[in-house]
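Reading a protein record of the kind used here takes only a little practice. These numbers are not coordinates but entries in a learned vocabulary of local backbone shapes. Here is one such record, which you should read through line by line.
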Amino acid sequence: MNTSYFYKATLSIAAASLLAALITLALKGIAATGPFVVLFFLALAIGIRQFSFLRGYSYTVTIFAAVATALYYPDYFVQIGDFRFAVLITPLIQLIMFGMGTSMGIKDFAGVVRNPKGVFIGVVSHFIIMPLVGFGLANLSGFSAEIAAGIILIGCSPNGMASNVISYLAKANLALSITITAVSTMLAPLITPLLMKLLAGAFIEIDVLDMMWDISKMVILPIGAGIVFNKFFHGKVKWLDDAMPLVSMFGIAFIIVIITAAGRNDLLDIGGLLILIVLVHNLTGYTLGYWTGRLCRMDERDCRTIAIEVGMQNGGLASGLAKEMGKMATVGLAPAIFSSLMNITGSLLASYWHRKPIVEQHTEKQPLAET
């Protein structure tokens, strides 16, 4: 089968679905447009894969399809019989973190020795800029206490592995990106609960010790197990090496769907404003991160890295913490939205920087084996 015809057919289906959604909206209202909206996003996610410059957005559009499904048909993602889907969030995060660990090793932490200045600036700016910006936006939003606390929570979370992919695409310093992500993740059990107590304590009750344990069991223990697995079995279980990225993408998408379904009513009430605030949070992180690097006299590649590492958060972990707090449908909304938006903005930023030549260069070339 000619793949070009297949992709053209899916784009035609997407166009027809969008037209049908608009007609249905005019005749019967938005509640009846569900099947057409979901089909539009699914077909679009497949169709844009024929274009190399749009292929990276296919996963994000698929998440939109999943979120649309959760908004139109929330009952299918909240509970089946006595089984509540929320119980899957923590195991999914642990599985994702295990996958992160399988791609890590001691060499990822050796970057602290090779580039201590860059790692220090990246980690410190990440845990200062995003929490403070989140705190300011939460106070200005006028949202209820729990939803406002969710904005602060995503700001207090460590980096996610998506930042490493974006750094690679943006021609940033990949070795530095990986090291900052590793260090911030390992510091999260201590720093994230303390920041939440300081900044979000006025909104909701924060139990620091409980949150430390929640982060440890969701992040530190699975990553540690993944690092051990990588040490002894890397390359020996090829199917697992190939499967983990797909498992991680599916896990993140399903977590977003579960939280969207649970918080559907609140999201429909404040969705537009919350999306705007989360977008401002994300873009401010990129901007302040980049100029922090500039003020610290870092070169262009490192500035791009700091921007990405500051602006992109571990939304999955934040969602898991919201679930452990018993406030998934409120505190978990901002992290779920942030996870979706940062993939779009990060991809756009990476595309822009990928085409923009780097004038400044490192004084020493980065070893190819490290990248």
Notes: The chain has two domains: 1-81, 89-370. The radius of gyration is 21 Å. The first strand starts at residue 79 and ends at 80.
